[in-house]
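agent> step 3/5: call structure_predict on target 'Histidine phosphatase family protein' (Oxalobacter paraformigenes).
agent> reason: downstream docking stage needs a structural representation; sequence fetched in step 2, passing through unchanged.
tool.input:
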Amino acid sequence: MNQPTDILIIRHGQTAWNKLKRLQGHSDIPLNEEGRLQAVTLAEILRHEPLDAIFSSDLQRAYQTAYEIAKSHNLPVHTDKSLRERCYGICEGMLAEEIKKAYPKSYEAWYAADPDHFFPDGERKTESPRQFHYRALEAIRNVASRHCGERVAIITHFGVLETAYRAAQNIPLGTRCKMPVLNTSINRFRWRDGRLELLAWGEASHLEEARKPPVDYYKHF
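tool.output (status=ok):
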């Protein structure tokens, strides 16, 4: 029997679109000033926590966050496209009210948690919640299987965290899944015997510290 893998799944720092509540998806939006400060503070909090590997979505908001943690652990960041957020097609960059006005049927399906609904395609082809769920869960499984008996960090997005939470809590697709997912919050899971277990959710005390920049903060950027 393989040893369990402990996994810290962490949402990226804040972006300008996060602040405005615009849907991001695969749109490659960088961290804003607050997000960069959150990433530096998060790295400091995790400095003394043993990590064997660091994985990240290839989108820059996740990579920029992961990079700060990797520097403090002298580890590389392994990027993985399968750890991206769900693709929302033409609705990326829009506010919820704009989606409601322009695509009312998609808006209704979105808030009804229809697992097989697709937003209209845009620059990129969209994914249904069901497709995304299995893609994200498989990405987590791949990381866990490569690091049996170790502790790893995955820096990713809201949707991937929702997938992990849903899987660990046995919440079926097609139902609303309500839980806070703050930028740079730390969420602890264990992969054991082919499934996720939730150990701790939403560690975010460091976000208060992020309001007080470290003395050498501006040396980072």
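agent> step 4/5: record observation. Helices lie at 16-20, 33-45, 60-73, 96-102, 104-111, 129-146, 158-168, 206-209.
agent> proceeding.
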